[in-house]
Write a structure and sequence with these properties.
This protein is an alpha/beta fold. A hairpin with a 2-residue loop joins strand 8 and strand 9. It is globular, with a radius of gyration of 18 Å. The relative contact order is 0.12. It binds calcium ion (CA).
Length: 243
């Protein structure tokens, strides 16, 4: 198992969630460190320097955002937030504080594992570019700007390639609308969410088998987009286990 040596710090106070995470991640061979408070989490993060941090937003001594900001001040480690379904604003605040992604409770086992893998890949890859993307039957060569599908060559514009590049750097993880707009169109366009929606519609028409039900370019309502590559979608657990 390739992830045997990966160390994950879990900062979570609910015993039931801790147990589920322990079983699911432990079974995959990840080495786990657990902390039940924000203060403990911060100490464990500093002493163990884990490969990935999973942090609950509602902790007994402080907001999970505090942990994210503190860790982000000294480390680029991938941070995934565990949050309740209704807390849309909290998710935005967490991503703005430096979290890379979030998982909504209750979560399924395949979803959790896919997000963790995406986070760990992001960590290994760092700022290094990803050149080849596979989305279902589509092969996308970002370096040479070529896209092939079962029907042959698909033409994408340079801007469409730039959007895919930006999403691919964080494949499997959420990318904020503002980040996409800033990176691809520049700081003046950072608030133009409407244009981005129109643009994504065109891109989906080219890449998605059913553009109304996107499989690869997934909308995270109010937050941004997630690129689901074949690698990111790879599922190891057959059943959806919720908690
Ligand atoms: Ca909690």
């Amino acid at each position: 198992m390739t992830q045997t040596m990966h160390q994950i710090l879990i900062v979570e106070d609910e015993p039931a969630i801790c147990n589920v995470l322990h079983v699911l991640l432990g079974k995959q061979g990840y080495k786990l460190i657990e902390a039940g408070t924000a203060a403990r989490g911060e100490i464990e993060a500093r002493s163990h320097k884990p490969d990935l941090l999973l942090v609950d937003l509602g902790l007994p001594d402080a907001d999970g955002l505090t942990v994210i900001r503190q860790v982000r001040a000294w480390s680029p480690m991938p941070i995934i937030v565990l949050s309740a379904r209704t807390m849309e604003e909290q998710k935005i605040a967490a991503l703005d504080a430096g979290a890379d992604d979030y998982i909504t409770k209750p979560f399924s086992a395949p979803e959790l594992l896919a997000r963790v893998r995406a986070g760990l890949r992001r960590n290994v890859r760092g700022s290094e570019q990803t050149h080849l993307l596979q989305l279902g039957p589509l092969h996308i060569d970002l370096a040479n700007r070529q896209t092939r599908g079962p029907q042959g060559e698909i033409h994408l514009t340079p801007v469409e390639y730039r959007v895919l590049e930006c999403l691919a750097r964080q494949a499997g993880m959420v990318v904020r609308q503002r980040q996409l707009l800033r990176e691809v169109w520049g700081p003046d366009k950072a608030d133009d969410a409407r244009s981005l929606r129109v643009f994504m519609k065109t891109l989906r028409a080219k890449l998605e088998p059913d553009p109304r039900r996107p499989r690869y370019l997934v909308t995270e309502t109010g937050l941004g987009y997630r690129l689901c590559t074949n690698e990111a979608a790879q599922v190891e657990e057959p059943a959806g286990l919720t908690s």
